[in-house]
Amino acid sequence: MRTLQRLFPRTVAIALTYLVTIFTNCTGVVQAASDVPAAMAAQQVSAHVWYVEGLSALGTSANQNFISNAAFVVTRVGVVVIDALGSPALAERLMAEIRKVTNQPVTHVIVTHYHADHVYGLQAFKDAGARIVAHSAAKQYLESEIALRRLQDSRQTLAPWIDEKTRLVAADQWIDGPTALTVGGVRFDIRPVGPAHTPEDLVVYLPQDKALLAGDLVFRRRIPFVGQADSGRWIEALDALLRFDASVVVPGHGPLSTTPRADMQLTRDYLSHLRKVMGPAARNLEPFDEAYLAADWSRFESLPLFGVANRMNAYNTYLLMEREAR
Asked: Peptide bond preceding 287: is omega within 30 degrees of 0, i.e. cis?
């Protein structure tokens, strides 16, 4: 593989800055956060489902790393949370929102994937007695040097919300295939869909509510974070999601979708376009900069975060397709 300096000569400094952000926050390149702490207010999605919406921003001390969505499902015997947000303090705020809706305890937390903005709040739920459910593919990441290094970096960049007391939390129940969970008469269909955005991707479907909790497979009204994703399998996973009979989708980032087919199609089309324009360049050994400048981005350049995220997404896709061509 050719070096970063040769392939990306005019933007090496920017790329390195972006990579530090990715390693620290695991969320991709996004716009600067406000210095004002983000409000958190649970919004009802369906008969049983509520969600909170994070900022489209970098995780910072100012926003407590509130840059992703989380959902909770209220049943007659307990509450099931989907994703735990990006700091223990945020998880405590989410539990306060839950208490505004019900006095039922949180019995389970289902983790869609182990990116920091979705899991650094897990310990608050674990300490409160919740059972953690996740895909077994996350074990390798949790045991890796990368996971430890990211947490150490976050203790600096996200202090005081991430500190020496913040810990990575493993699942109590690791799953490898489709799993049904029923709590208080509400059925949860938990489906592995990775490797896509991450190797351990899960989505959760509630057939009674026709609600799909999609994790980071769906980014709404913004450019997605591609990072080290397998974009080809991500596209296949989105095709699988389109077969759900969902009337509402809670994305991993961005506002609620009541037009799931259109919103998922946009993410799918963007990923397909990245592969379409970067694939031939990678196979033909064309320099990345030239391929990027020659590509037509007009369909997507009006989307939020295009200016700061698209070039890195294209570069990561270029590297992926270079590996696929070998």
From this structure: no
CA 315 – CA 32 distance, rounded (Å): 21
pTM for the model: 0.86
Q: For residue 147, what is the domain's CATH number? A: 3.60.15.10
Cα-Cα-Cα-Cα dihedral sign, residues 320, 174, 238, 22? negative
H or E element in which residue 252 lies: strand 248-253
Instruction: Give the chain's domain count.
Output: 1
Range of the domain at 283: 4-324
Q: Give me the residue label for tokens 């983000």.
A: 38
Beta strands 211-219; 248-253: pairing state = parallel
Chain centre to alpha carbon of residue 314 = 18
For residues 148 and 164, what is the distance between their CA atoms, to the nearest angstrom? 12
> Which uninterrupted H or E stretch holds 19?
helix 12-25
For residues 188 and 212, give the distance between their C-alpha atoms in angstroms, rounded to a whole number: 10
Give the sheet arrangement for strand 211-219, strand by strand: 179-183, 186-192, 202-206, 211-219, 248-253
Provide the CA 210 distance to its chain's centre, in angstroms. Answer: 21
The dihedral through the CA atoms of 175, 214, 115, 165 has a sign that is negative
CA–CA separation, 190 and 289 (whole Å): 41
Task: Tell me the per-residue pLDDT of 166-214, one tens digit each, with 9 for 90 and over.
Answer: 999 999 999 999 999 999 999 999 999 999 999 999 999 999 999 999 9
Residue 25 CA to residue 22 CA, distance in Å, equals: 5
Residue 157 phi, psi (nearest 5): -80, -20
239-257 confidence digits (pLDDT tens):
999 899 999 999 999 999 9
